[in-house]
Amino acid sequence: MCAGVPRATSEKGRVDISVPLRSGTVHWPDNPPVRIERVFGIERGDVANVSTLSLGSHTGTHMDAPLHFVRGGRGWTGCRSMLRWGGRG
């Protein structure tokens, strides 16, 4: 998402329903919690804003490739027809 762009903005028939990720975002009970920590900040005199991210791979709004829930399933690279849902990947 871009700052200043309404979340419900439709682009080519798509509506962004994603949940923003932030420290404390709801997660599956057996997955690690979301942690976002600023390690460098322009406001502190650093040359860039840099953060560390820690989260489980099933956190937030996402689509899973069959690899995540079917034994022997393909990853996204094996599901070319599904790539159109999320863009270029």
From TrEMBL:
GO process annotations (BP): L-tryptophan catabolic process to kynurenine
Keyword Hydrolase included in the entry's annotation: yes
Entry-linked InterPro entries: KFase/CYL, KFase_sf
Pfam family, one: Cyclase
The keyword Transcription regulation appears for this protein: no
Domain of life: Bacteria
Annotated GO MF terms: arylformamidase activity
The entry's keywords: Hydrolase
Protein name: Metal-dependent hydrolase
